Amino acid sequence: MIAAIDNPSNALEWALAEMLKKPETLPKAIDELDNVVGKDRLVQESDFPQLNYVKACAREAFRLHPISPFIPPHVSQTDTTVADYFIPKGSYVVVSREGLGRNPKVWDDPFEFKPERHLQGQGCNEGKEVVLAEPELRFISFSRGRRGCPGVVLGSSMTTMLFARLLQGFEWSIPANQGTIDLSQGREDSFLAKPLHAVAKPRLSPNVYSLQR
To answer: Which CATH number characterizes residue 8's domain?
Structure first.
């Protein structure tokens, strides 16, 4: 339930908040959607491979704002050494998801929302389609390994579809009386401290929003 609902919804709320805070990113996503999909139909799953900037925005939100600060504790079964650190048998090991995604040794300007860092030629997914999972564990969107998230394909598809249709279907803006977006994080979780309030204005023909039979 957490992986299928909370993880995508948290990432997309952060992504939209970051894009409203950095408004030059929104036209880039809209232009990609209009070029790939057009305005006469809704996004379909078959469009996903060509929506790399849209997915880069979602991926950047996963990097910068993971669903939880840490992964669940693990216990070492034997003495072992990882990255020159000796870990005795029976030790509890906790990995910081925020620390991975914001590591300045891995990411330039780690606290900046920069979707372009995930595009071809920017040192990530070079020559390949942008995906939401991170195979090299430079951040954790969906867990990996033997106990990796079994719903990674479903979760990725749900995230991409929801995000793409929200961006395709509406023009997003900050309420006139709000001033600016507050990107403060909750003190006890990784959600926005204050729920995102935004104005959505339809940008497609009314018939496109109707259910297709």
So the answer is: 1.10.630.10
